[in-house]
Amino acid sequence: MRWRAVLGSVVVWGSTARAEMPGKAPPDRERGQEVYARDCAACHGAKALGDGPAAAVLGVPAPALAGRAPVAEEAAQVRLILEGRGAMPGFSAVFDEADARKVLVWLRALDPKTGVDPDARPPKAPAKAPAPAPPSPADGPGKAG
User: Fold this and answer.
1) pLDDT > 70: what percent of the chain?
2) What kind of fold does domain 23-113 have according to CATH?
């Protein structure tokens, strides 16, 4: 019975720890997202839904990749990324096998319908320009500047 209490504490603590650290994806996923954004998003779209701006000029649709990178097919997918096929160019001159695998790790994490990574950090809000300083009493209505 005591082991159940200990196990329950560990599970609850793990859940709490995760809840207190929202938006922290593992490093492989972060690197995969960086590589994807730089080299894949133009055709496959920012959220890997097959709707990138270059997809319209390809003549063939770019496939949606979000959530569609089964581990069982990883070796073939890495080869496809590095060597290319059909309208897709190979990227072996741009990045290595390790980065190709990290792209697949990131793609697996995405929701297939929305292309959203549930652990992604929310985008930073753009910095606001400082508010203009209020006029000083010396800048009264009759003063010319």
Assistant:
1) 66
2) Cytochrome Bc1 Complex; Chain D, domain 2 (1.10.760)
